[in-house]
Amino acid sequence: MDWAEKYRPQRLADIVGNTSAVHQLLEWAKDWTSDRKPVLLYGKPGIGKTSAAYALARDLGWEIIELNASDQRTKGAIERIAGSSSVTASLSGALRRLILLDEADNLEGNADRGGAKAIADIIRHSRQPIILIANDAYGVAPEVRKLCEQVQFRAVPARSLAPYLRGICASEGLQCDEEAIRMIAEDAHGDIRSALNMLFGTSIGRDHIAPSDLHAYQKDSRSSIFDLIAKTISGSSDDQLIRLSREVEDTPDAVIQWIEAAISQHREGWRRASGLTLLSRADLYLGRTFRRQYYTLWRYASAMMLIGSATVSSGSGLRPRLAPPGRWQRMGQARRQKQVRLSLENRLAEAYHIPQRTISEEYLTLISRIADDNPSQCVRLLNLDADQLGLLIHDKVRAGKIIKEMEKQAKDEEKRKKGSIKVKEEKKTLEENPSSERKVPEKKPPAQSTLFSF
Ligand SMILES: Nc1ncnc2c1ncn2[C@@H]1O[C@H](COP(=O)(O)OP(=O)(O)OP(=O)(O)O)[C@@H](O)[C@H]1O
Protein backbone atom coordinates (compact mmCIF):
# COMPACT_ATOMS: atom_id res chain seq x y z
CA MET A 1 0.00 0.00 0.00
CA ASP A 2 1.39 3.43 -0.84
CA TRP A 3 2.13 5.70 2.08
CA ALA A 4 -0.50 8.32 1.25
CA GLU A 5 -3.13 5.63 1.88
CA LYS A 6 -1.26 3.88 4.69
CA TYR A 7 -0.91 7.14 6.64
CA ARG A 8 -4.33 8.61 5.91
CA PRO A 9 -5.34 10.38 9.13
CA GLN A 10 -7.87 8.34 11.08
CA ARG A 11 -8.83 10.96 13.66
CA LEU A 12 -9.14 14.73 13.45
CA ALA A 13 -6.20 14.96 15.83
CA ASP A 14 -4.04 13.26 13.16
CA ILE A 15 -4.63 16.01 10.58
CA VAL A 16 -1.45 17.99 10.01
CA GLY A 17 -1.90 21.80 10.01
CA ASN A 18 -5.20 23.54 9.32
CA THR A 19 -5.98 23.73 13.02
CA SER A 20 -8.60 26.43 12.75
CA ALA A 21 -10.38 24.72 9.82
CA VAL A 22 -10.49 21.45 11.78
CA HIS A 23 -11.77 23.31 14.83
CA GLN A 24 -14.46 25.03 12.75
CA LEU A 25 -15.50 21.67 11.33
CA LEU A 26 -15.73 20.04 14.74
CA GLU A 27 -17.75 22.94 16.18
CA TRP A 28 -20.13 22.67 13.23
CA ALA A 29 -20.59 18.95 13.80
CA LYS A 30 -20.92 19.15 17.57
CA ASP A 31 -23.67 21.75 17.38
CA TRP A 32 -25.30 20.19 14.37
CA THR A 33 -29.07 20.49 14.10
CA SER A 34 -31.15 20.00 10.98
CA ASP A 35 -31.46 23.75 10.44
CA ARG A 36 -27.66 24.14 10.35
CA LYS A 37 -26.10 24.87 6.96
CA PRO A 38 -23.94 22.17 5.32
CA VAL A 39 -20.20 22.73 5.17
CA LEU A 40 -18.29 23.44 1.98
CA LEU A 41 -14.66 22.33 2.52
CA TYR A 42 -12.46 23.85 -0.13
CA GLY A 43 -8.76 24.12 -0.91
CA LYS A 44 -6.09 22.72 -3.22
CA PRO A 45 -5.70 18.95 -3.72
CA GLY A 46 -3.87 16.70 -1.27
CA ILE A 47 -4.18 18.81 1.87
CA GLY A 48 -6.59 16.68 3.85
CA LYS A 49 -10.15 17.76 3.01
CA THR A 50 -11.51 14.28 2.35
CA SER A 51 -9.48 12.79 5.20
CA ALA A 52 -10.86 15.42 7.59
CA ALA A 53 -14.45 14.55 6.67
CA TYR A 54 -13.83 10.83 7.27
CA ALA A 55 -11.92 11.52 10.49
CA LEU A 56 -14.78 13.70 11.74
CA ALA A 57 -17.30 10.93 11.11
CA ARG A 58 -15.07 8.43 12.89
CA ASP A 59 -14.51 10.72 15.88
CA LEU A 60 -18.23 11.29 16.31
CA GLY A 61 -19.36 7.75 15.51
CA TRP A 62 -21.27 8.89 12.42
CA GLU A 63 -21.86 6.78 9.35
CA ILE A 64 -20.58 8.26 6.08
CA ILE A 65 -21.98 8.05 2.56
CA GLU A 66 -19.78 9.41 -0.21
CA LEU A 67 -21.02 10.47 -3.63
CA ASN A 68 -18.23 11.37 -5.96
CA ALA A 69 -18.29 9.63 -9.33
CA SER A 70 -19.85 11.74 -12.00
CA ASP A 71 -22.22 8.96 -13.03
CA GLN A 72 -23.80 9.24 -9.59
CA ARG A 73 -24.43 12.90 -10.18
CA THR A 74 -27.58 12.80 -12.23
CA LYS A 75 -30.55 14.44 -10.57
CA GLY A 76 -32.39 11.14 -10.15
CA ALA A 77 -29.37 9.37 -8.69
CA ILE A 78 -28.60 12.13 -6.25
CA GLU A 79 -32.16 12.29 -5.07
CA ARG A 80 -32.32 8.51 -4.75
CA ILE A 81 -29.04 8.06 -2.91
CA ALA A 82 -28.53 11.20 -0.87
CA GLY A 83 -32.13 12.34 -0.75
CA SER A 84 -33.44 9.17 0.85
CA SER A 85 -30.47 8.59 3.10
CA SER A 86 -30.65 12.17 4.20
CA VAL A 87 -34.09 11.87 5.71
CA THR A 88 -34.16 8.31 6.99
CA ALA A 89 -32.53 7.12 10.16
CA SER A 90 -29.35 5.09 9.94
CA LEU A 91 -29.83 1.32 9.91
CA SER A 92 -26.53 0.68 11.62
CA GLY A 93 -27.65 2.64 14.66
CA ALA A 94 -25.02 5.34 14.09
CA LEU A 95 -26.00 8.64 15.58
CA ARG A 96 -26.03 10.43 12.26
CA ARG A 97 -25.36 9.80 8.62
CA LEU A 98 -22.84 12.19 7.07
CA ILE A 99 -23.34 12.74 3.35
CA LEU A 100 -20.11 13.57 1.56
CA LEU A 101 -20.28 15.19 -1.87
CA ASP A 102 -16.79 15.24 -3.31
CA GLU A 103 -15.89 17.27 -6.41
CA ALA A 104 -18.70 19.71 -5.68
CA ASP A 105 -17.08 22.11 -8.13
CA ASN A 106 -17.88 19.63 -10.87
CA LEU A 107 -21.63 19.41 -10.74
CA GLU A 108 -22.46 21.03 -14.03
CA GLY A 109 -20.70 18.74 -16.51
CA ASN A 110 -22.64 16.87 -19.16
CA ALA A 111 -23.37 13.84 -17.02
CA ASP A 112 -24.31 16.09 -14.12
CA ARG A 113 -26.99 18.18 -15.71
CA GLY A 114 -29.52 19.00 -13.08
CA GLY A 115 -26.97 18.09 -10.40
CA ALA A 116 -26.54 21.52 -8.87
CA LYS A 117 -30.25 22.08 -8.57
CA ALA A 118 -30.81 18.62 -7.14
CA ILE A 119 -28.07 19.20 -4.58
CA ALA A 120 -29.50 22.58 -3.62
CA ASP A 121 -32.86 20.87 -3.02
CA ILE A 122 -31.30 18.08 -0.98
CA ILE A 123 -29.37 20.59 1.10
CA ARG A 124 -32.52 22.53 1.87
CA HIS A 125 -34.49 19.47 2.90
CA SER A 126 -31.85 17.23 4.41
CA ARG A 127 -32.21 16.14 7.98
CA GLN A 128 -28.69 14.75 8.05
CA PRO A 129 -25.36 16.62 7.96
CA ILE A 130 -23.76 17.23 4.56
CA ILE A 131 -20.16 18.08 3.69
CA LEU A 132 -19.30 19.26 0.17
CA ILE A 133 -15.70 19.17 -1.02
CA ALA A 134 -14.22 21.33 -3.77
CA ASN A 135 -10.87 22.66 -4.89
CA ASP A 136 -12.30 26.04 -5.77
CA ALA A 137 -15.24 27.46 -3.81
CA TYR A 138 -16.13 29.63 -6.78
CA GLY A 139 -16.37 26.61 -9.03
CA VAL A 140 -19.35 25.48 -6.96
CA ALA A 141 -22.70 26.56 -8.40
CA PRO A 142 -23.74 29.77 -6.61
CA GLU A 143 -27.13 28.39 -5.60
CA VAL A 144 -25.33 25.59 -3.76
CA ARG A 145 -22.46 27.72 -2.44
CA LYS A 146 -24.71 30.22 -0.76
CA LEU A 147 -26.48 27.50 1.18
CA CYS A 148 -23.17 26.40 2.73
CA GLU A 149 -20.92 27.41 5.58
CA GLN A 150 -17.49 27.72 3.96
CA VAL A 151 -14.39 26.21 5.56
CA GLN A 152 -11.09 26.80 3.82
CA PHE A 153 -8.27 24.26 3.96
CA ARG A 154 -4.90 25.85 3.29
CA ALA A 155 -1.69 24.44 1.87
CA VAL A 156 0.40 23.05 4.72
CA PRO A 157 3.63 25.06 5.16
CA ALA A 158 6.95 23.23 4.75
CA ARG A 159 7.87 23.88 8.40
CA SER A 160 4.78 21.89 9.56
CA LEU A 161 5.27 19.21 6.96
CA ALA A 162 8.92 18.45 7.74
CA PRO A 163 8.33 17.06 11.30
CA TYR A 164 5.48 14.95 9.94
CA LEU A 165 7.74 13.46 7.26
CA ARG A 166 10.42 12.81 9.88
CA GLY A 167 7.85 10.86 11.94
CA ILE A 168 6.93 8.72 8.94
CA CYS A 169 10.59 7.96 8.20
CA ALA A 170 11.01 6.90 11.85
CA SER A 171 8.06 4.54 11.76
CA GLU A 172 9.26 3.03 8.45
CA GLY A 173 12.81 2.62 9.81
CA LEU A 174 14.05 4.86 6.99
CA GLN A 175 16.99 7.19 7.40
CA CYS A 176 16.43 10.46 5.59
CA ASP A 177 18.90 13.34 5.61
CA GLU A 178 17.58 16.62 6.98
CA GLU A 179 18.31 18.33 3.68
CA ALA A 180 16.28 15.71 1.81
CA ILE A 181 13.35 16.16 4.23
CA ARG A 182 13.53 19.92 3.71
CA MET A 183 13.59 19.54 -0.07
CA ILE A 184 10.59 17.20 -0.12
CA ALA A 185 8.62 19.45 2.24
CA GLU A 186 9.32 22.48 0.06
CA ASP A 187 8.80 20.81 -3.31
CA ALA A 188 5.37 19.62 -2.22
CA HIS A 189 4.07 23.22 -2.03
CA GLY A 190 1.71 22.24 0.79
CA ASP A 191 0.38 19.10 -0.92
CA ILE A 192 0.92 16.34 1.69
CA ARG A 193 -0.13 13.56 -0.67
CA SER A 194 2.56 14.61 -3.13
CA ALA A 195 5.17 14.80 -0.34
CA LEU A 196 4.28 11.27 0.82
CA ASN A 197 4.38 9.97 -2.74
CA MET A 198 7.80 11.49 -3.29
CA LEU A 199 9.12 10.04 -0.04
CA PHE A 200 7.64 6.63 -0.80
CA GLY A 201 8.90 6.64 -4.41
CA THR A 202 12.42 7.56 -3.37
CA SER A 203 12.49 5.04 -0.54
CA ILE A 204 11.87 2.03 -2.79
CA GLY A 205 14.98 -0.17 -2.65
CA ARG A 206 16.71 2.12 -0.11
CA ASP A 207 17.00 2.40 3.64
CA HIS A 208 18.70 5.77 3.50
CA ILE A 209 17.73 8.85 1.49
CA ALA A 210 20.24 11.56 0.62
CA PRO A 211 19.43 14.73 -1.37
CA SER A 212 21.09 13.22 -4.45
CA ASP A 213 18.65 10.26 -4.37
CA LEU A 214 15.90 12.78 -4.46
CA HIS A 215 17.33 14.40 -7.54
CA ALA A 216 17.41 11.02 -9.19
CA TYR A 217 13.80 10.39 -8.25
CA GLN A 218 12.76 13.84 -9.40
CA LYS A 219 14.55 13.37 -12.68
CA ASP A 220 12.69 10.14 -13.21
CA SER A 221 9.43 11.85 -12.45
CA ARG A 222 7.98 14.55 -14.66
CA SER A 223 9.59 17.96 -14.67
CA SER A 224 7.41 20.89 -13.97
CA ILE A 225 6.51 23.68 -16.30
CA PHE A 226 8.45 25.99 -13.96
CA ASP A 227 11.72 24.14 -14.74
CA LEU A 228 11.04 24.29 -18.43
CA ILE A 229 10.34 28.03 -18.53
CA ALA A 230 13.23 28.90 -16.20
CA LYS A 231 15.64 26.82 -18.32
CA THR A 232 14.33 28.35 -21.55
CA ILE A 233 14.86 31.90 -20.35
CA SER A 234 18.29 31.10 -18.95
CA GLY A 235 19.25 29.81 -22.43
CA SER A 236 19.85 26.10 -21.65
CA SER A 237 21.03 23.69 -24.31
CA ASP A 238 18.67 22.55 -27.11
CA ASP A 239 18.81 18.90 -26.00
CA GLN A 240 17.95 19.72 -22.42
CA LEU A 241 14.99 21.87 -23.45
CA ILE A 242 13.56 19.24 -25.76
CA ARG A 243 13.95 16.57 -23.08
CA LEU A 244 12.24 18.75 -20.48
CA SER A 245 9.43 19.60 -22.88
CA ARG A 246 8.70 15.88 -23.24
CA GLU A 247 8.57 15.45 -19.46
CA VAL A 248 6.15 18.25 -18.62
CA GLU A 249 2.49 17.40 -18.54
CA ASP A 250 1.43 20.64 -20.22
CA THR A 251 0.64 20.59 -23.91
CA PRO A 252 2.55 22.86 -26.33
CA ASP A 253 -0.39 25.27 -26.60
CA ALA A 254 -0.21 25.81 -22.83
CA VAL A 255 3.62 25.99 -22.84
CA ILE A 256 3.57 28.71 -25.48
CA GLN A 257 1.46 30.91 -23.21
CA TRP A 258 3.82 30.42 -20.27
CA ILE A 259 6.75 31.38 -22.49
CA GLU A 260 4.88 34.41 -23.76
CA ALA A 261 4.33 35.58 -20.17
CA ALA A 262 8.06 35.16 -19.42
CA ILE A 263 9.41 36.62 -22.68
CA SER A 264 7.26 39.73 -22.22
CA GLN A 265 9.28 40.50 -19.08
CA HIS A 266 12.49 41.23 -21.04
CA ARG A 267 13.60 44.82 -20.60
CA GLU A 268 15.21 45.09 -24.05
CA GLY A 269 12.66 45.77 -26.75
CA TRP A 270 14.52 43.73 -29.37
CA ARG A 271 14.41 40.59 -27.19
CA ARG A 272 10.68 41.00 -26.65
CA ALA A 273 10.07 41.66 -30.36
CA SER A 274 12.19 38.73 -31.62
CA GLY A 275 10.83 36.38 -28.94
CA LEU A 276 7.22 37.21 -29.71
CA THR A 277 7.83 36.88 -33.46
CA LEU A 278 9.17 33.38 -32.91
CA LEU A 279 6.22 32.52 -30.69
CA SER A 280 3.80 33.70 -33.34
CA ARG A 281 5.52 31.39 -35.86
CA ALA A 282 5.30 28.53 -33.37
CA ASP A 283 1.63 29.34 -32.90
CA LEU A 284 1.08 29.00 -36.64
CA TYR A 285 2.54 25.49 -36.52
CA LEU A 286 0.35 24.64 -33.54
CA GLY A 287 -2.73 25.82 -35.42
CA ARG A 288 -1.77 23.66 -38.41
CA THR A 289 -1.14 20.68 -36.12
CA PHE A 290 -4.70 20.84 -34.83
CA ARG A 291 -6.34 21.68 -38.12
CA ARG A 292 -4.57 18.94 -40.07
CA GLN A 293 -4.39 16.52 -37.16
CA TYR A 294 -0.75 16.11 -38.16
CA TYR A 295 1.07 15.85 -34.86
CA THR A 296 4.60 15.77 -36.27
CA LEU A 297 4.25 19.52 -36.66
CA TRP A 298 4.19 19.78 -32.86
CA ARG A 299 7.91 19.16 -32.92
CA TYR A 300 8.55 22.22 -35.08
CA ALA A 301 6.33 24.32 -32.89
CA SER A 302 8.11 23.14 -29.72
CA ALA A 303 11.56 23.67 -31.19
CA MET A 304 10.69 27.14 -32.36
CA MET A 305 9.12 28.27 -29.12
CA LEU A 306 11.75 26.74 -26.82
CA ILE A 307 15.04 26.87 -28.71
CA GLY A 308 14.08 30.16 -30.34
CA SER A 309 13.14 31.80 -27.04
CA ALA A 310 16.28 30.41 -25.38
CA THR A 311 18.46 31.91 -28.12
CA VAL A 312 16.76 35.28 -27.82
CA SER A 313 16.95 35.24 -24.01
CA SER A 314 20.44 33.89 -23.57
CA GLY A 315 22.76 36.34 -21.83
CA SER A 316 19.91 38.63 -20.74
CA GLY A 317 20.27 37.66 -17.07
CA LEU A 318 16.48 37.86 -16.78
CA ARG A 319 14.94 35.98 -13.87
CA PRO A 320 11.31 36.06 -14.89
CA ARG A 321 8.45 35.90 -12.43
CA LEU A 322 7.08 32.46 -13.21
CA ALA A 323 3.34 32.66 -12.95
CA PRO A 324 0.49 31.17 -14.96
CA PRO A 325 -0.28 33.41 -17.93
CA GLY A 326 -2.41 36.40 -16.89
CA ARG A 327 -4.74 35.60 -19.76
CA TRP A 328 -5.82 32.38 -18.00
CA GLN A 329 -6.66 34.30 -14.87
CA ARG A 330 -8.67 36.80 -16.89
CA MET A 331 -10.42 33.96 -18.70
CA GLY A 332 -11.19 32.31 -15.34
CA GLN A 333 -12.64 35.55 -14.02
CA ALA A 334 -14.69 36.04 -17.16
CA ARG A 335 -16.01 32.48 -16.88
CA ARG A 336 -16.95 33.06 -13.26
CA GLN A 337 -18.62 36.33 -14.13
CA LYS A 338 -20.58 34.59 -16.86
CA GLN A 339 -21.73 31.92 -14.40
CA VAL A 340 -22.93 34.58 -11.96
CA ARG A 341 -24.72 36.44 -14.76
CA LEU A 342 -26.45 33.30 -15.98
CA SER A 343 -27.54 32.25 -12.51
CA LEU A 344 -28.91 35.77 -11.90
CA GLU A 345 -30.84 35.80 -15.17
CA ASN A 346 -32.24 32.33 -14.48
CA ARG A 347 -33.36 33.43 -11.04
CA LEU A 348 -35.10 36.51 -12.51
CA ALA A 349 -36.64 34.43 -15.27
CA GLU A 350 -38.06 32.01 -12.72
CA ALA A 351 -39.33 34.77 -10.42
CA TYR A 352 -41.05 36.82 -13.10
CA HIS A 353 -42.04 34.02 -15.48
CA ILE A 354 -40.19 35.63 -18.36
CA PRO A 355 -37.75 33.70 -20.58
CA GLN A 356 -34.12 34.14 -19.55
CA ARG A 357 -33.20 35.55 -22.95
CA THR A 358 -35.90 38.22 -22.74
CA ILE A 359 -34.69 39.12 -19.25
CA SER A 360 -31.17 39.44 -20.57
CA GLU A 361 -32.07 41.48 -23.64
CA GLU A 362 -34.91 43.66 -22.42
CA TYR A 363 -35.37 43.79 -18.68
CA LEU A 364 -31.99 43.55 -16.99
CA THR A 365 -31.29 47.31 -17.03
CA LEU A 366 -34.74 48.07 -15.69
CA ILE A 367 -34.55 45.49 -12.91
CA SER A 368 -31.06 46.69 -12.13
CA ARG A 369 -32.38 50.25 -11.56
CA ILE A 370 -35.20 49.04 -9.34
CA ALA A 371 -32.75 46.85 -7.39
CA ASP A 372 -30.42 49.80 -6.97
CA ASP A 373 -33.19 51.72 -5.15
CA ASN A 374 -34.05 48.91 -2.79
CA PRO A 375 -31.33 46.25 -2.84
CA SER A 376 -32.18 44.46 0.39
CA GLN A 377 -35.80 44.01 -0.60
CA CYS A 378 -34.61 42.64 -3.92
CA VAL A 379 -32.28 40.17 -2.18
CA ARG A 380 -35.13 38.99 0.06
CA LEU A 381 -37.53 38.55 -2.81
CA LEU A 382 -35.14 36.90 -5.25
CA ASN A 383 -32.90 35.13 -2.75
CA LEU A 384 -29.69 36.55 -4.24
CA ASP A 385 -26.13 36.12 -3.04
CA ALA A 386 -23.49 38.86 -2.89
CA ASP A 387 -22.10 38.08 -6.37
CA GLN A 388 -25.50 38.20 -8.01
CA LEU A 389 -26.48 41.41 -6.22
CA GLY A 390 -23.10 42.97 -7.08
CA LEU A 391 -23.72 42.28 -10.74
CA LEU A 392 -27.25 43.63 -10.58
CA ILE A 393 -26.39 46.92 -8.86
CA HIS A 394 -22.92 47.17 -10.48
CA ASP A 395 -21.24 47.60 -7.12
CA LYS A 396 -19.51 44.60 -5.58
CA VAL A 397 -18.43 46.32 -2.38
CA ARG A 398 -21.86 47.76 -1.61
CA ALA A 399 -23.46 44.38 -2.40
CA GLY A 400 -21.09 42.63 0.02
CA LYS A 401 -21.97 45.09 2.78
CA ILE A 402 -25.71 44.75 2.17
CA ILE A 403 -25.59 40.95 2.30
CA LYS A 404 -23.46 41.02 5.46
CA GLU A 405 -25.88 43.44 7.13
CA MET A 406 -28.85 41.27 6.14
CA GLU A 407 -27.18 38.15 7.51
CA LYS A 408 -26.56 39.99 10.76
CA GLN A 409 -30.19 41.11 10.90
CA ALA A 410 -31.36 37.55 10.23
CA LYS A 411 -29.19 36.27 13.10
CA ASP A 412 -30.52 38.98 15.45
CA GLU A 413 -34.07 38.13 14.42
CA GLU A 414 -33.37 34.47 15.13
CA LYS A 415 -32.05 35.36 18.58
CA ARG A 416 -35.07 37.59 19.23
CA LYS A 417 -37.40 34.76 18.28
CA LYS A 418 -35.62 32.37 20.62
CA GLY A 419 -35.84 35.05 23.34
CA SER A 420 -39.57 35.52 22.87
CA ILE A 421 -40.18 31.77 23.11
CA LYS A 422 -38.31 31.83 26.41
CA VAL A 423 -40.41 34.79 27.64
CA LYS A 424 -43.61 32.93 26.77
CA GLU A 425 -42.41 29.91 28.72
CA GLU A 426 -41.56 32.07 31.71
CA LYS A 427 -44.96 33.80 31.51
CA LYS A 428 -46.65 30.41 31.53
CA THR A 429 -44.63 29.36 34.57
CA LEU A 430 -45.63 32.61 36.29
CA GLU A 431 -49.31 31.97 35.64
CA GLU A 432 -49.03 28.46 36.96
CA ASN A 433 -46.92 29.57 39.91
CA PRO A 434 -47.85 33.20 40.83
CA SER A 435 -45.38 33.30 43.74
CA SER A 436 -42.53 33.50 41.19
CA GLU A 437 -41.48 37.16 40.70
CA ARG A 438 -39.63 37.36 37.39
CA LYS A 439 -40.47 40.33 35.17
CA VAL A 440 -41.63 39.68 31.59
CA PRO A 441 -39.86 41.94 29.06
CA GLU A 442 -42.02 43.69 26.46
CA LYS A 443 -42.25 42.08 23.06
CA LYS A 444 -40.86 44.19 20.18
CA PRO A 445 -43.05 44.68 17.10
CA PRO A 446 -41.90 42.69 14.04
CA ALA A 447 -39.84 44.53 11.39
CA GLN A 448 -41.94 46.10 8.61
CA SER A 449 -41.51 44.90 5.05
CA THR A 450 -42.63 46.25 1.71
CA LEU A 451 -43.07 44.44 -1.57
CA PHE A 452 -40.50 44.60 -4.33
CA SER A 453 -42.18 44.64 -7.70
CA PHE A 454 -41.98 46.21 -11.11
N1 LIG B 1 -3.58 17.53 6.57
C1 LIG B 1 -3.14 16.26 6.40
N2 LIG B 1 -2.65 15.58 7.43
C2 LIG B 1 -2.18 14.32 7.26
N3 LIG B 1 -2.16 13.68 6.07
C3 LIG B 1 -2.62 14.32 5.00
C4 LIG B 1 -3.16 15.64 5.12
N4 LIG B 1 -3.55 16.04 3.90
C5 LIG B 1 -3.31 15.05 3.06
N5 LIG B 1 -2.74 14.00 3.71
C6 LIG B 1 -2.30 12.75 3.06
O1 LIG B 1 -2.66 12.84 1.69
C7 LIG B 1 -3.62 11.85 1.35
C8 LIG B 1 -4.73 12.50 0.53
O2 LIG B 1 -5.45 13.42 1.33
P1 LIG B 1 -6.95 13.83 1.06
O3 LIG B 1 -7.60 12.87 0.10
O4 LIG B 1 -7.62 14.06 2.35
O5 LIG B 1 -6.72 15.22 0.33
P2 LIG B 1 -7.80 16.17 -0.33
O6 LIG B 1 -7.48 17.55 0.14
O7 LIG B 1 -9.18 15.69 -0.08
O8 LIG B 1 -7.41 16.05 -1.85
P3 LIG B 1 -8.36 15.99 -3.15
O9 LIG B 1 -8.92 17.38 -3.31
O10 LIG B 1 -7.41 15.61 -4.25
O11 LIG B 1 -9.40 14.95 -2.90
C9 LIG B 1 -4.12 11.28 2.66
O12 LIG B 1 -4.39 9.91 2.52
C10 LIG B 1 -2.99 11.53 3.61
O13 LIG B 1 -2.08 10.46 3.58
UniProtKB/TrEMBL annotation:
InterPro entries: AAA+_ATPase (IPR003593), ATPase_AAA_core (IPR003959), P-loop_NTPase (IPR027417), Rep_factor-C_lsu (IPR023935), RFC_lid (IPR047854)
The keyword Heme belongs to this UniProt entry's keyword annotation: no
Highest taxon of the lineage: Archaea
Gene3D superfamilies: 1.10.8.60, P-loop containing nucleotide triphosphate hydrolases
Quaternary structure note: Heteromultimer composed of small subunits (RfcS) and large subunits (RfcL).
Protein family per UniProt: Belongs to the activator 1 small subunits family. RfcL subfamily.
Record's protein name: Replication factor C large subunit
Organism: Methanocalculus chunghsingensis
